Amino acid sequence: MTPTVNPSLSLNLVADLRDLFQFPFMVHALEAATIVAVLASVVGWYVVLRRQAFAGHTLSVMAFPGAAGAALAGWPAALGYYVACAAAALAMAGTGPAVGRHKSVASAVIATVQITGLAAGFLFLSLNHQILVGLETLLFGTFLGVSSSQVLVLLAIAAGVLAVTALIARPLHFCTLDPEVARARGVPVRALDVCFLLILAFAVAATSQITGALLTFALLVAPPAAAQLITGRTLAGLVVSVAIALVVAWLGLAAAYFSIYPAGFYVTTFALAAYVLAWTARAARGRLAARRRTRLPSAGVLESG
Amino acid sequence: MFSHDFVRDAYIAGTPIALACGLIGWFAVLRAQVFAGDALSHVAFVGAIAAAVAGVDERVGLFAFTLAVALGIAALGGRRGEADDAAIGIVFAWVLGVGVLLLAVLATTPRGSAGVTLANTLFGSIFSLTSGASLLAAAVALIVACALCVMLRPLLLSTLDGELATVRGVPVRALGAAFLGLLAAVTAQSTQAVGALLLLGLLAAPAGAAHLLTARPYRGLALAAGIAVASMWGGLALSYAVPSLPPSSAIIGFAAAAYVGAALWRWERARSPLHQTT
Q1: Which domains, from first to last, does chain A contain?
Q2: Residues A216, A227: contact at Cβ < 8 Å?
Q3: pLDDT classification of A133: cutoffs 50, 70, 90
Q4: To probe the interface with B, which of A104, A251, A276 has the most B CB atoms within 10 Å?
Q5: pLDDT tens digits for A229-257?
Q6: Between A54, A108, A218, which is nearest B211 by CB?
Q7: 3-class SS of residue A213
Q8: Which of A5, B38, B178, B263 has its CA 20 to 30 Å from the CA of residue A115?
Q9: What domains can be seen in chain B, in order of their start residue?
């Protein structure tokens, strides 16, 4: 079979799949998407649980000053991403936990960090006297230019980040759900806060080079939020979150391959669809349970007792 | 400096925008809705692209989109009026995804000015405003500031103690939606002057500094507005003096410096034994 330049979707699923895997760039893209989906949905599970979506978004935007700064200093772009993300994570971490009375000021801090990063990015651009090539690529990414060595680097970083996450998972969970008790038990809550932000920074820096800031953020928030609507248990929730992210990423890439429109649109749309579905299922389940309770008054008595 | 028309226009538009952003931002920080403002400022750019695709005026798209998303966030929040971070994030990632789609659509049409629109909307330059546009920006910002002043007291009560406000008969939910509407209006307007991304700085940094400096509402509001206007003036003057410094970066630089100064002041005060509260 000769490769076709303009792929079209047929009703034959096997032929479609073969079509999808005929170019090396598409295979690399699917490999990268798989790694990104797993990494983002696991780290994102804690982002949603800790209500740090704003921080996640701020870190994903740091791609801009990172790339602009690296271009100015003559560094490789990847180094700029890591430096900018880590610096932003430390700046946000220096402000204390985002709970209770401090919550409102914390959001101002995150916004200030984000905006300072962006302003710095503009300054770097203007000092460099050039327009950053591919601004859209920076924000919205392209899976299609991924090389096999990039996939290997991504895999190594993802493995490292996931290992560290697994290492601190239990105390992190504890201090997320009940920081007061955790502190009383001697868990280093503050250190864990900083550590998690750094994990998030590394995950975001690694993924946003390949997927762009937009897709990183969508995969970071939507699958875990949907999973947490479906189940309250940790392990089941993580599995559901990873599964949703994989389906969203694969379907998004496949849809982009067979149409002329970009992957960014499809991935975010499928991510939103997953969340809306989970929300609807939860609402339907709640209504069903309420109806069963009114029909069986004894169950209601048992529950109230 | 003021003999140049473009500088005068920048000050005419910039001062009311900074004033409105400072006032609105103070409430946004108090209500922990800065993320909503961030989301709206990104959404504005999708609105502008949508308008370009549909072939209508950019401003129509900006206002329609940001207002629609603001009402959506208000609806998501339900009775409490506080939408979930994750829900806001998912919706606005999707809106950005739609923006990417629209850019692709625009690139395939003969008008093909996608890149230009994107650059103008994301990074609008305050030094390139026409005098008509600057007067319009000033008018919208002043109207928003006045509207906020009218609903100041009930909004303050419903933010600080929603239950008491409900008992007193204050329409808490409607006020929350109205506040998001004002936030959307100022966002849509400011994107053309300071750019969608950098608007957030005027919204968050002066207000955050004011919250660190004082807990009193009226003093805090005045401080936030004052810091925002001072940052605007200082930033414009500095970037006029140093041409390689973009005006947005200079303005944000002043605002962020004010925030860092406030944080240092607060830290120093907490350390000094004279002010230690037990």
Answers
A1: 20-304 (1.10.3470.10)
A2: no
A3: low
A4: A104
A5: 888 888 999 999 999 999 999 998 888 88
A6: A108
A7: helix
A8: B178
A9: 5-197 (1.10.3470.10)
